[in-house]
Amino acid sequence: MRRRRLTHVALAALLALGGLSAAGTIPAAATGSTAGSAGTAPSAYRPASYGVVTAMQRDLGLTRQQAEARIADERAAAALAPKVRRTAGKAYAGSWFDSEKGRLTVALTPDAPADTRSAIRAAGAEVRTAAHSARRLDAVKARVDRLSAPTGVSGWHVDPVANTVVVDVVRKDRSDNDVRRFVSRAREAGPVTVRTVSAAPRTFAAGTVGGDPYYTGNVRCSIGFSVHGGFVTAGHCGRPGAGVSGWDGSYIGTFQGSSFPDNDYAWVSVGSGWWTVPVVLGWGTVPDQLVRGSAVAPVGSSVCRSGSTSHWHCGTVLATNETVNYSQGAVHQLTKTSACAEPGDSGGSFITGDQAQGVTSGGWGNCTSGGETWFQPVNEILGRYGLTLHTYTG
Predict the structure, then answer these.
(1) Which of 44, 187, 189, 387 has minimal CB crowding within 10 Å?
(2) Which domain holds residue 155?
(3) Which residues, in sequence order, are bridge partners of residue 207?
């Protein structure tokens, strides 16, 4: 462990000498090695690191060429998504990345003008007709958010592919009277579909177990992304004013802001010789990944997660703006993925290609049997606290 950590420190120093600004997080950095881009990638495409590509191969069953091409396609879809939403206007009914076709699909209501459909197709997206607008489904979800949910209801979100609000119910609790009452009231709000899930979500903090990477009292969590002046992480890992120590036991800094439940985000200011670098750690499993921005990946995109317990794992974005009903209370605006996580991974990084997506909140299952994991979008955290993501611009 110590030898690997010393290597990270040396690499961080080399990166700083190479032009990265030093401002304060964990003493670790990336090698900067990247895989070559696929033949279908546009000329402006910057390939992801070898670590992201190999993790996608392992977890998504892709070849190296398929993984690289998918990253390029997802980058194009992420850039296109906000543009087509503006074009669609009131007729917008959601969008998602279609991994089979390698492009963005946009749902429009039946009253969408022909020229709007043509413009969206011309921009490079598929078009599908859906009964309910995104505005209506968001309003239905907002009404469900105002209900008090029993523990047998694990969460709810807008599903753009199914064009409905999906309420997830834990299988063993589906006959519970409180669950049935909640589902009945949710259906009164509008188009709602009930889905059965295997287990209730939980947060992924853990007691101190030696090793990685930061500690608050007797709790171990994972660093999310470096920002200028500190790093962002999960809110359930610490309250404002709580001190933070690093992997070596030395003092890092202090929680400056934290919210949980309702939200699950926080930021920690750093100092005492610690500095920030725009990387996501591979934890010795894969090379580290440089962070170049925070463009939002659409539903259907691949996403990889790094955490101090289970290290690198990849999956797919399953839903956005989901309300998750933890035992501590509901948390809103989370993104659901099929990537696994385990205790101690809380606060860790979710990244698509080289674009930061969010910090690990919680989930169910583990990295042996599988499961689902949620993250708090990083752009929401940056906006809430007025932070600037530390990115690599080389």
Answers:
(1) 44
(2) 134-200
(3) 219
